[in-house]
Design brief:
single chain; alpha/beta; three-stranded mixed β-sheet; 3 helices; FTHF_cligase-like_sf; metal ion binding; FTHF_cligase
Length: about 160
């Protein structure tokens, strides 16, 4: 929460922890208290394998997706296009010393975040992880989206000009 990018951000995408992921609940509550708009990833209703970002409030009506993960109901008024987000916090399974992220294997974040690299969007992509999820090196595919930063309870990792 002390990162300048976070302090300046107005629209932040985050996730609800699932299957042992580092919980961002404290971060979400802090965002609401600071008046920041919070968005959650939702499985894209028309484009398989992609995500859309839907505004999330304490009283949002939630539905379980096909993986059993709670998502806010989608409405056109609650969507935030990727280029308008300031930060996207992602969960991960593992990360390496070069800022590469391994997800759950579905490729949802990589497909959705492709424009960050391709179009050089100013969106900061930050992974949240447990300290024990760090490894020396991960296999990298051309479609993998590297992180700008990875934050664990013990350290903040910054990566070169991403």
């Amino acid at each position: 929460m002390s990162l300048p990018a976070f302090q300046q951000a107005e629209r932040i995408a985050v996730y609800l922890a699932n299957d042992g992921e580092l919980s961002p609940n404290e971060l979400i509550t802090h965002c609401w208290l600071e008046g920041k708009a919070v968005y959650l990833p939702v499985l894209h209703p028309f484009t398989a394998g992609n995500l859309v970002f839907v505004q999330y409030h304490p009283d949002s009506s939630m539905l379980a997706n096909k993986y059993g993960i709670a998502e806010p109901r989608v409405s056109s008024a609650s969507l935030c296009p990727l280029p308008l987000l300031d930060i996207v916090f992602t969960p991960l399974v593992a990360f390496d010393n070069a800022g590469n992220r391994m997800g759950m294997g579905g490729g949802y974040y990589d497909r959705t975040l492709r424009p960050v690299v391709r179009d050089q969007l100013k969106v900061q992509v930050i992974g949240l992880a447990h300290d024990c999820q760090q490894c020396d090196a991960l296999p990298v595919q051309p479609w993998d989206i590297p992180m700008h930063k990875i934050i664990t309870p013990g350290k903040i990792f910054h990566f070169q000009s991403r």
